[in-house]
């Protein structure tokens, strides 16, 4: 298997934010607080490590806050790094709101500034009590051609495509930053890509057999039968050739997606997703996404066809789309939440909501809903799947609570597949997020054991079956075991693909590291002999290319180079496959299958594409392929 080379990641951002009171527009409160003038350097522990802050007091005021050092996640914690110092200075208050999704970073900044306030002889509590009184302003009343609700991957792709096709676009995003769940993604993007896959080793016989098996099932419909024949032909052509590169084909990607979702997904959507994946990745490249040439298999992705952007995972997509959108003149309103669709004479003609505490009303010819799924809405997810209890964490941003689904439902949209909610067996036990582990984006490079040190599943399986297997283990806890020759995951500067500082993960006891498997076992409270046996057996399966216990077929190298790593992982709620029903041109449908005029949707907010289970690496394709299509359709409607 072709090893992904080290990737350069954005590591420590040293952002100096010098904000002076001049130019601040908010109402100043707490004017009578007195401080000893001077500059104080203080620290607090953020999400990714220490945040070092320099606070300057002048004339009885907090004059400047500079963030000297931080390792917060780009696109998530970095938003708080940028925003909170400004607000503290602007409002002369430590009672500022934490940034949604970046609570630990926000609190660390407040804590560090509090320490400086103490040093300067100020009263921290009094400063925390100073109310943040936002400037009163006019309501936001606007008119445009296309309004996009939600600034994640789908919304930004839609905004870019609409603007690129000549439409005047406003995008509203309810949080302080663009990105949604997309910015939290590891970044894998599945595409059948002969040029890149040519350099990948051929699949082993067991994997090829799995592909062949897909041609021998009871056809669900005529098109399915045709696709099975297409795949048979593709395999035959491959086998009659040199066979010295990885086999893949559009038919295989389609059938794996269809089968992986238990034949519940709509085949015509799956075909669209698969066929448009590579061209859309090229469009994304034109808009600034830099792809590596490496191909890997994301957990639950089933086949090596995942592409990765060059830098910091999902952030790359958001950064590229945001820059392009701004260049194309898209107006982006942050802290602007849509709460209602305006309907007149049966047409959707705009949105209502709230922008920075003011009323917002934006009239438009077309509204595109791209608000993401609802995995962070415990009540809503339990309504559709009662097993997803509140003790289960989620990988999602706290903003992903199904707003768009609720709004669309109110205007008669049909919802589809709401009960299909995907969990992953790879959540961070602390907060359910996907980061803070060593194992990489490729399932080829690790295996998972339970608390007893035993493997319990094929790590290259479907996400739903893997999570079910993990839920059946003691305390539903597992450890990902990987090793140094899994260099797919840690670059020269000690940063893993999630942007985490690996030394810090080990120091903090988040990830365990040892020079031998026995020492590693001791650290995580597993019988060393048991883990040794599991490890040797696993390596023998890698050597044989065959897993006699669980039937895994995707392997990289043997894990035999110290140090070895163990990363604790738990089930975590990840993706909601259900949502608003759309047609192939992204129009929202009502219960009778009729279009709701003026209303489009794209991304995780839509349902019916993936079926009961989504393949890993297909979501970023879905949101970009259908986001782009929604934008193009909106522009077409405007020009009509
Ligand atoms: P997708 O992958 O489908 O693009 P994401 O989760 O990446 O979905 O992004 C959805 C975005 O929509 C998030 O940034 C989220 O904050 C935003 N959002 C959710 N609800 C609203 C709303 N009511 N108004 C504006 N933005 C919203």
Rg: 25 Å
Distance between the amino and carboxyl termini: 50 Å
- The CATH superfamily name of the largest domain is FAD/NAD(P)-binding domain
- CATH class category label of the largest domain: Alpha Beta
In percent, how much strand structure appears in the residues? 15-25%
Per CATH, which architecture of the largest domain? 3-Layer(bba) Sandwich
* Spans where pLDDT lies below 50 across 5 or more residues: 1-31
**Backbone structural class:** alpha+beta
Provide the list of bound ligands, each named once.
Answer: adenosine-5'-diphosphate
Q: Order of strands in the sheet with the most strands?
A: 9-6-5-13-22-21
* 3D shape: globular
- Domain count: the total is 3
Number of strands: 22
Mean pLDDT: 91
Number of helix segments? 17
Helix share bin: 25-40%
Largest sheet: 6 strands, mixed
Find the CATH topology of the largest domain: FAD/NAD(P)-binding domain
Give a nutshell description of this structure.
The chain has 640 residues and is α+β, with helices and mostly antiparallel strands. It has helices at 77-91, 103-119, 124-129, 153-164, 194-197, 205-213, 222-239, 250-260, 267-286, 315-327, 378-384, 403-410, 463-471, 502-507, 517-523, 528-544, 619-639, and strands spanning 38-45, 50-58, 61-69, 140-143, 146-149, 169-172, 189-190, 306-307, 331-333, 336-344, 347-355, 358-363, 366-369, 415-416, 421-427, 447-450, 478-483, 512-514, 564-576, 579-580, 587-589, 595-601. The chain has a six-stranded mixed sheet, covered by helices on one side.
